[in-house]
């Protein structure tokens, strides 16, 4: 405690300097009772003069709680997009609202940097983003015994707190919508690109399985495609799609960055959207869909809600207001930009 | 220190359990000397069993340094975009590389939440994003005497550590490029949308002033437009542009989200890019420019470098390896997607 005895001001010093009681300083700092604005100003001025750093650290040592949580995000595995930005900002806002601080912690998909984070003793809990079906990070967090929640979920998420998109419901709804309009040749486009684990990435696998399940109920043939996550790759994919399925009448896109290229690739072949082919984005963001010409109807990812609830659930666990792990699936909301039309018979 | 005496394991407990010397535990934890992998494993196992939380908190209290820095970002003032995402991820990666933790701290453009952050005693310093010319947050950080750096800069940044885009050079270069190709009717489109302070936002003001300066050197007339930050708004703006300047031959876009709408609005009027009008993005992101049809050449924002250097400069200040405030302007890099052509004479 050398630092403290050396030159760290105490709350008592602040009270003296401000000419108020110790209790008043405590009320002002901890916001436990209202304090007149002019008094608060005097106290804050005294705190500044004395370079008084009140509470977080000492309180953390005393309570063994730091009120810091970490948001784990993967570096470079695949393109982070507008969805990730909304996770970051909504998670940070929710943490702040609850009186917590959110640390952004880059990690690989492996567990390498998790021990460093947890062993620092700095954090009370972890929110994991971009979850894989078999995720080393989740295994390691479990072993370390630190509270955590997932935005996403593993293959067997029982006993783990998570909030995820309802991908199964999303695909079933989208397929139903298209079939009602007479579509039978419905393809789906996934994203690739730099991530060898993409086939282990929850959203991709769950969407693919749900698509195959919806197809299996019919006599139709699955039409699955994938390309890099870029507009140029989407454009290059179009001839392949048309070669394999010249009579394709609808496309589901789980590759936001390729969407504009696919639409312009279709146009380049004289195929209009939605006159000849209906197109719909799955779990994408409205900003991207809105910027495509023509605009693409989409099932919008509930990104802000996911970020917010990931943090909310974790804090509930930390504060003991939740006993069982929360397991929530959130629906995407359909936004109609007119890119879906009845099939030609 | 009740928590500690109650049940917090000590480093000595860990040494005993792992069957190694206290010094070896210290070497392993503080990475001051190499420790054999098998020994390290034994020590880590002992730390887990004893739930030993080593160092960050106690060290912070002793050293009065937490090795935590905050990235201040504004909520909802105007659309955060791909640029902001890159600030977040590159800033977090750089902090981690230097052994620091980065907290994401949402704040308004006012100083309201800064005192809360600084008074918590949790952070060593602050990186401020999305800086306004007269920025209350910067004023308040200065008053509080906490080290900070800016990504962006105020009107009078002398004495402040900052890293910013070289907007002045960017506009001069772009204007020169277009004039060399014979363009004389060069317009510029700014973004609006929800932010009453947009006219105080550094990138907008500096770009506008540089545009006016470049125009003032000639006999040309300034052609300035603005619209909301969306594709739909860009599309709606096109008729206004053509009414005001039917002979316009080039457009600079400082409104990334409107770019696709402007291009498709031009096409809807039978005006081809670049055959009739050249278009170039200023400080935008390659992902957006690449997704437009046709793709738009751009001066790409050096977002990753800005995020990384904002953190780097701050840590240099904190560690005393930098004496004077760093003041850096970073150039955008031109990426040619073929949307610029010679002017028709």
From TrEMBL, chains A, B:
PROSITE patterns: HTH_LACI_1, HTH_LACI_2. The keyword Transcription regulation applies. Residues 9-63 form the HTH lacI-type domain. GO terms for molecular function: DNA-binding transcription factor activity; transcription cis-regulatory region binding. Signal peptide: none annotated. CDD domains: HTH_LacI. The keyword Transcription applies. Keywords: DNA-binding, Transcription, Transcription regulation. This is LacI family transcriptional regulator. It comes from Mycetocola tolaasinivorans.
